[in-house]
Write a structure and sequence with these properties.
alpha+beta; signal; about 25% helix; eight-stranded antiparallel β-sheet
């Protein structure tokens, strides 16, 4: 079952994640890694990383959405494959350069927490009935080729029509930016969504090296 596209909602979700006292309050070990000062200048311009038409076993659907460099929201594109699996790939920095690269960056753990708050924000907007964590989570410290790793959190999401999807959110740091994949498995299995996210992140890392 298809989840609604979140591309048009992405800027709103970042605001929704900060709209509650719980989201706005500092969280030990997270706040300093996540929040940029309100008056922070945009990150220095860097060459844009492409969103290829073909990424791993996926094909890009539609054009790349650009939210504008000054916003810190970066760019995003949707991907799908013939069996019904689909994902959205995001590159953004929230107006603060991220380091170090890979899964072990403190920013990655913090961003996964923020993403959970954003999913709750989508639920509050009436787009989902429920968002529940699902095991297992994935941590890859280094890839087999020695490249930066990634982290994934899995979810079972109850859609407004009552159907449940298996979703994953995978995050790493690439070239000073968050590289995030939000994936949905056609068979409803969060573990498969997890592997989809990992495949697309590794493919984006490879594309960035070319």
């Amino acid at each position: 079952m298809m989840r609604p596209s979140l591309l048009p909602l992405f800027p709103l979700l970042l605001l929704a994640a900060c709209a509650t006292p719980e989201a706005a309050a500092p969280q030990p070990g997270l706040a300093t890694a996540t929040a940029a000062p309100a008056a922070a200048a945009p990150a220095a311009a860097r060459p844009a990383i492409d969103f290829p038409a073909t990424l791993g076993s996926f094909q890009r659907r539609g054009e790349v959405t650009d939210y504008g460099a000054a916003s810190g929201l970066g760019r995003a594109a949707g991907y799908h494959r013939a069996n019904g699996d689909y994902a959205t790939v995001y590159l953004y920095d929230r107006r603060q350069r991220r380091a170090p690269e890979g899964a072990m960056s403190p920013d990655v753990a913090a961003e996964l927490q923020v993403t959970r708050q954003e999913l709750d924000g989508v639920m509050a907007l009436g787009r989902y009935r429920a968002v529940e964590p699902a095991d297992p989570e994935l941590l890859v410290e280094r890839t087999r080729s020695g490249g930066p790793g990634l982290r994934c959190n899995n979810y079972r999401i109850t859609q407004t029509h009552g159907g449940t999807t298996g979703d994953a959110v995978c995050v790493t740091v690439l070239d000073g930016q968050f590289l995030k994949v939000r994936s949905t498995a056609a068979n409803g299995d969060p573990r498969r969504a997890n592997l989809i996210g990992a495949e697309l992140i590794l493919a984006m890392q490879e594309a960035a090296r070319r």
